[in-house]
Amino acid sequence: MSTPVIDSLLLRCTPAAHETATTLAQTALALLRQDLADLRLLRVAQQPQGIAYLYFALGNPQPLSTDQTLQAERRLQGAGSAGLAACELSRLQLVMQRIGPAQGEATPVHYAVEMDPEVGWQDDLFAWYDQEHLPGLASVAGTAQAFRYLNLDHGPLSLACYDLVDAEVMGCPAWLAVRGTDWSARVRPHFTNTRRTMFDTQALP
To answer: Which of 42, 73, 85, 174 is the most buried (most CB within 10 A)?
Structure first.
């Protein structure tokens, strides 16, 4: 089986009381660059006093094996930082990116939806996401950009995320209309291992 070509990495970690997500991101970036010199920090998102999602992008997509990822994860876990001791490093493949009307505005809210498709529903769910759902939400006023990735390691498999000007965007009529389509009603019950998480976006160092 060929080694997958990777666009990005996701590091899940929980900062200790004396740490910040941004500091952990800087520590992780320095360690990951030992093997991935063109890696850059893309986004720092954290729940208040909770888990942080740190996104990194490769300057040029490249093959990255499971073993290489595990070695990098162990290096991070052994770095001496409490917040990285139980971290999870996953390879991400970018499926889709859409720029929204709020591109260029401050986006203090990052919303992530993760799920594994029920057996037999992957093709339909991914078609819905890529043809209707993610482009529709990306077009709503207050959305700066939307992404969908495949998580090849710690899962769930599908990760869709949205950078928003505020949390109220998710309650506006346009957003709810996209969520309320017939296709949405048919496929959404076939999400499994679903995680819906609202994060505060931290300023990049």
So the answer is: 73
